[in-house]
Amino acid sequence: MRKNQSLNKKILKKIGMNIKYRRCYANISQETLAMDIGVERSYITSIELGDKSPSVYCLFLIAERLNTSLKDLVDINLN
Q1: Half-sphere exposure (Cβ direction) of 79: Cα atoms closer than 13 Å
Q2: Which mean pLDDT values do the consecutive 10-residue runs of the chain (79 residues) have?
Q3: Which residue range is the domain that position 7 belongs to?
Q4: pTM for this predicted structure
């Protein structure tokens, strides 16, 4: 079970890093992104830190707002 938890955390951190990178590249604050997709800023922070697992729908809204694809947000290398 611990191995799965570790892998899950690693995946969430990498997705969070992808979101943060694309958000910063688009020059959009966490507050603006949160308001635009209808969530709290603290939720965006938690996603970017890998502490929360967003739904596919939430990831879709984030991707749409950042003018990127869902694939770009979840495209990760675990090595």
Answers
A1: 0
A2: 79 96 98 98 98 97 97 85
A3: 2-74
A4: 0.90
